[in-house]
Amino acid sequence: MWLADNWKDYEIIDCSRGEKLERWGDYLLVRPDPQVIWDTPRKHKGWKERNGHYHRSKKGGGEWEFFHLPDQWQIRYGSLTFHLKPFSFKHTGLFPEQAVNWDWCAGKIRDARRPVKILNLFAYTGGATLSAAAAGASVTHVDASKGMVAWAKENAISSGLKDAPIRWIVDDCVKFVEREIRRGNKYDAVIMDPPSYGRGPKGEIWKIEDSIYPFIRLCARLLSDEPVFFLVNSYTTGLAPAVLAYMLELELKKYHGNISADEIGLTVSASGLVLPCGASGRFFMK
User: Fold this and answer.
1) How many angstroms from the chain centroid is the CA of residue 82?
2) Strand-pair partners of 32
3) C-alpha closest to that of 83 among 158, 2, 19
4) What is the domain count for the chain?
5) Per-residue pLDDT reduced to its tens digit, 214-227
6) Are residues 117 and 202 in the same domain?
7) What Å distances lie between residue 140 and 24, 104, 148, 269, 277, CA to CA?
8) Do 202 and 234 have their domain in common?
9) What is the pTM of this model?
10) What is d(CA 205, CA 66) in angstroms, rounded to the nearest whole number?
11) CA–CA separation, 137 vs 140, rounded Å?
């Protein structure tokens, strides 16, 4: 398993009974997690002294309960600074487990020792974008949510990357890729972190099991003749790492590169065990 173990401002303190207790900087949050199916004693005082608690509804969705939590605060990861705020469906604006992929991508960019042009799809609040830009790449950041792109720009400013070569695009990712193909544009690397389920601007349904392979095939057409890497992430438990690797092998075999895939996870401080948080597939040149 690939672990995001370089955090200083974030940790999973404990997890039990369908929930995890997390430290985000100076604040403690309790949020649901479908992987936490065990029932163990909640000994850490943070379970009672939490600053925010997202209560899942049996009817779907849920709501936050707050205890002295600011509307917004910041945490750091290396040289990067991220704005956090709790919003709908339990999220805070950051997926900490993705730091293991940020670090991997940054390493590949630095190792390339040449200009690297990256396309980041479903780019959310910019974790991968900022890490890649800080490593020296030029990045095209694409997300369908105007609010998320604005949030990513705020993170870029806070991280000292206001003037970095980042192109901010608010668009449906599939439509954008189709237009880039028609324009003849090419990229040295592709990052994609698609949702399990979503809807396009005209009501198009995105279901990852049905849509991910055709989209990987489409994005493969954007790769340059000497690509650096291709990263795909999935939060859907039904997609095993081997499935991600298989799809990358089918579409990128002409480059004769390396392909690996594994679960990604975060260590739980109370037990030392690892909480799985999804899976990633990676293609990279030898």
Assistant:
1) 13
2) 19
3) 158
4) 2
5) 999 999 999 999 99
6) yes
7) 28, 18, 14, 36, 26
8) yes
9) 0.95
10) 34
11) 10
